[in-house]
Amino acid sequence: MSSLDRQVLALAVPALGALVAEPLFVLVDSAVVGHLGTPELAGLALASTVLVTVVGLCVFLAYATTAAVARHLGAGDRVAALRLGIDGMWLAAGLGVVLAPALAGAAPWAVEALGADGPVAGHAVTYLRWSAPGLPGMLLVLAATGALRGLLDTRTPLVVAASGAVANAVLNVVLVYGVGMGIAGSGLGTAVAQLGMAAVLVVVVLRGARAVGAPLSPAAAGILAQARAGAPLLVRTVSLRLAILLTVWVATGLGPVVLAGHQVVNAVWGLTAFALDALAIAAQALVGHALGSRDLGRVRAVLRRTVTWGVAAGVVLGVVIALAAPLLARPFTSDPAVRDAVVAGLVVAAAALPLAGWVFVLDGVLIGAGDGRYLAWAGLWTVAAYVPCALAVRAWAPDGALGLAWLWIAFGGVFMLARAATTALRARGTAWMVDGPTPR
Q: For residue 61, which of 160, 157, 152, 146 has the smallest C-alpha distance?
């Protein structure tokens, strides 16, 4: 194994643990709430989609910070790197304080917009309102994790994320069944766990900043610079979330069985997708560091190796998920119709995982290079390609297992293929390879 492979794995393996811990929150919530009943599980599907959408729209707090911090670290300026990390955390805290009450107030409208009503809608609103107070913590986790990744430290986020996942599991069981809060207890448990994770990560970054003499107070210019750098990535994320929301809307229209099944398939997809994204995290940090030190040969080497690892990991994960699909369906529901739908959806999703490995790694390479503007446009193009396919599924697909299978053919096949084409086209050229401490 080459030294580059070892460095990729040294970053990717801890990042894998941290990234897998995050979707475990959703999996634990799904397993605990699923045994309350199908309406509760369907409500959680809608609520978690809205919550993850809000947090996902702010993922630039991690991505932009990782790229900027890594570039300055590569250029030899650790003080500037940590100052950028501090500015990112101030931006995250401000956004969280604004978005938390907004999410709680808009919960009924958001759930209705996804096409739900009756008990399903009621459970979704309850979960959202109890989980909303944890939103500032969720955003601070993104920003602090991005800073640490840029400093080539993926171990600390791993420890914190794993601890948070365990705490979330315990809190969910205690609050949902022990205290008898039902789905509200699941939302509250997630909020408390995220706030605790944020507190630990913020302390770690602040200690690092103090050690090198970086200022801890908010700098308006730095916060604005972080916001500007994140704007194209926000557009990219909006396009991704639109595709995900459209998928949930289609599932809702196909009935509670498809919607409940989609919640489980999507949770497993999230687990495997974040696992593949560990390689993208390594690519972000290493590409940013190499561009900061003006080593373009190393940039190309990182691109080749991480893409190879990504596709190979997708193949392995796809085989495992396809073979384990019947077993994976059982812990989440006792409804035979939902179980059949879960198995069908998981088999289709598994077939798309090698392609997903390609997509996620190339995304990471371009994000690490600060090529957000291209990614923003590419995101809009891919959504445009996906919309007609999703609408066709909504109009003509049957309910039950076959309907969920067609929905995942559209999402895992058409949408991911469009993303693969746009990122591959860009990576073949050199326009994204801008070196120096800041992208021009």
A: 146
- Rounded distance between C-alpha atoms, residue 43 and residue 306, angstroms: 38
Confidence tier at 436 by pLDDT (50, 70, 90): low
CB atoms within 10 A of CB 412: 22
What is the rounded CA–CA span in Å between residue 222 and residue 40?
43
Amino acid at 158: L
In three-state secondary structure terms, 428 is: coil
The first and second tokens of residue 439, run together, are 């992208």
Q: List Cα–Cα distances, 81 to 66, 142, 151, 311, 436, in angstroms.
A: 10, 16, 8, 32, 14
- Contact in structure between 187 and 128 (CB atoms under 8 Å): yes
Helices in 174-255 by DSSP H: which ranges?
Answer: 183-212, 220-253
Q: Is the CB of residue 29 less than 8 Å from the CB of residue 186?
A: yes
Nearest to 384 by CA among 193, 242, 229: 242
Q: Is the pLDDT of residue 23 over 70?
A: no
Say what the pLDDT of residue 11 is: 83
User: Region 374-392: what's the mean pLDDT?
Assistant: 94
In one-letter notation, the amino acid at residue 413 is G
Q: What is the pLDDT of residues 349-376, one digit of tens each?
A: 999 999 999 999 999 899 988 888 899 9
Instruction: Tell whether the model's pLDDT for residue 272 goes beyond 70.
Output: yes
CA atoms of 423 and 429, how far apart (whole Å): 11
Nearest CA to 138 out of 273, 11, 22 is that of 22
Give 33-72 as a DSSP string. HHTT-HHHHHHHHHHHHHHHHHHHHTTHHHHHHHHHHHHH
Report the distance separating Cα 371 and Cα 145, nearest Å: 20
Q: How far apart are CA 440 and CA 426, in angstroms?
A: 17
In whole angstroms, give the CA distance from residue 67 to residue 70.
5
Domain boundaries, the chain: 3-427
Phi, psi of 309 (to 5 degrees): -60, -40
> Which residues have CB under 8 Å from 230's CB, separation 6+?
60, 61, 63, 64, 372
The span from the CA of 150 to the CA of 71, in Å, is: 8
For 166-183, how does the pLDDT look when each residue is reduced to its tens digit (9 = 90+)? 898 899 889 888 888 888
Distance CA 78, CA 105 (A): 41
